[in-house]
Amino acid sequence: MATILFIEDERNLQKTFRDLLEDEGYEMISALDGEEGLKKAKEEPDLILLDLILPKLHGFKVLKKLKAKEETKDIPVIILTNLEGTDDVQKALEMGVTTYLVKSDYELEEVLNKIENSLE
């Protein structure tokens, strides 16, 4: 069973994804801010879903720290955010994310498909 770390400050979205992922046989670890997300990344999840607008530590800073550490640099990261700017997308891709998704543009099933593809 794959483990997914979801770094997201919206509790309702956390719950929605927990229900969806657990129904599909995944285990989900939750983090409600960037600092907590970095700590929980040490548990070596199989994939990280990362929001960019986070309390305590912005998502780009989280991503930079994840990619700088030997134990977390190879974990696939999917950005799931409301930031739609071309510069943000470009920056994230240059930093090594697997996929960049804008929340309002994707249904839950589509996000699940992106997760499955990233884990293959």
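the 2nd protein, sequnce then structure:
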Amino acid sequence: MDAIERLAAAEAIRNVKATYWYAMDMKDWDRLATVFAEDAIFDMREEFAFGQGQRLDPLPPIEESIAAGDPALTGGAKNIAGFIRNVVERWLTVHHGHAPIIDIHSPDHATAIWPLFDYIDDGQRALKG
């Protein structure tokens, strides 16, 4: 990839992440679904385990968890958006993403570190992260 292609790829990644946060905060579930590929898998196994006072280290292979029907895995763009909706629909959420460090490794592989501040209020308590 040349420099222009890398810049374009990084900008596309920024737009997807910004759309994700914006759609969640605006409760725009149809828009939220557009940021996920149809074959995407939303993996919440660590978060579910943490919520039960457990730790999954290391995580079992995702194929095993899918075969076992693990409820902490959700597949498909609309299903993922629905899962997120069920979790945060009644809450006020505010997400501020800041200057990401995006490394484009190839046309189909990138990694990022994304500083984030979020505010989540369920009406009884407010969480800041």
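Helices lie at 3-26, 29-33, 45-51, 62-67, 77-88. Residues 69 and 111 are 28 Å apart (CA to CA).
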